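Lab notebook, bench 4. Still working through the backlog of constructs that have no structural model yet. Next entry is a single chain of 497 residues. Request: give me the structure tokens for it.
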Amino acid sequence: MDVTKLKGKRALTQSIASRTTDPNFYAALEFLPNPDTVLRKLGVSQTVFDAIVSDAHVIGELRSIRAGLLRFEYRVQPGGDTPADARAAELCEQLLAQRPAPGLGWPDTLWMMFDAVFRGYAVHEVVWQRQDRVLMPERVVDRPQRRFVFSPSNDLRLLTRDSPMHGVELGAFKWLLSRHMASFTNPYGVALLSSCFWPYTFKHSGVKYFAKFCERYGIPWALGRYPEGTPKETQTAIVDALAQMVEDAVAAVPEGTGVELLEYKQSGAPIQERFINLCNREMSKALTSQTLATEIQGSGARALGQVHAERQAEGAEADRNMVASTMNELFAWITLLNVEGANAPTFEFFEEAQARKDWADVLEVARGYTDVPTAFAHERLQIPLPVDGEDVLPRRNAPVAQPAGGPRFAAPAVSGAEPPDEAALMAAIDSIADGTLQQQAEGLLDPILAFAAKAPEQLLGRLAERYPEMDDAALTEQLARVIFVAETWGRLHGRES
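Model written out:
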């Protein structure tokens, strides 16, 4: 097809910049080789990733990532409010209530889908079974990445005994594909373990030399001195005695022979140990997307730690969305095959405490615009409504009973109200006339100003560390009294004028 002759509507419906028109693509290829630079240049398969996972540092990071994923709960969100939508959501909830495969739970399957982050892609086969007039997945089983390739049109193909090189085409509703950072150029996705290959290789090569270094310099050298002209046999006996001394810490040498212990002295960690730590940090950055725990040696500011924690949380959220997208595809299949006209439900990860906090913020803002039903707020916050006579915690912003005679520290009185209590006004003036406010403000700000003068570049981090420890209760009370006096003084002078 000559793409230069396509015009008008026909040009809009045709794919022009495909691989069939790419001058750098060999059109006879029936499958795409994995463009991963490590796998291609070294001529190795994904089995090399299994070796990287066996590294103690890497498996420790993976366990931490897995714990971060599985601490989230998950639920089915209906796609709409119709009876059909509710039925589709019910079927998907029924799926999550059963095991995805013999001997496996959904946390295991979700983690295997998450494995696409580390290997580029993950494939799960869905085995269907008819249950009570509906077609439901009986098993959702992970399959090894080595069994699959992609066609020039980026379609997934299965390698079989009859077609071990090019693979066979796959049908619909059968294969769930999870991919990490996939693109048209690289349908296999980006494998984070590939970024760990060279640090892993250098580290394990360095460990061998580090072990030799420890053997050679970890034990003091025993140096024997003998007089000039000592026979060869005596010299050999001295060497044997010193070698025995290294093992048993005792030795017998001829009289007149000197023995000296030489120790290897070096400031700081040996260069081999620093090299191994560098490789570990590089692998941690690739796997967790954070640098605080792996780059900064020594102490770090709390504010910096919060920034890095947020960065790691954002990366983890994106990876969870990849798993949720795979589950959404499975939910769409269940809906399409069983409930005609229904909107497919969605799979959602959620954290119980975080969900409550988010809804608390939403309800606080919504109260400024609309009336929020109490039952709705209790449902979203998952706090039951109190029954009659049940003890409850008082609301933090509950109205406080005012003393007789009207409020003392309230909003300005409206026109025509009684003048403020003169005794209360004088008491408030007396309480702030002795310099207490100045002293409290100085006590709160002096340490911060002193630190700013010494190390202004670290001020933000220091403020983040000290903020939770600051006691501003007394200063807040004094400021409230100042505001009361100012408002009262203004109202009194307003009446005189």
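Notes after review: Confidence is low (pLDDT under 50) at residues 406-417. The longest strand covers residues 121-131. Flag for follow-up if needed.
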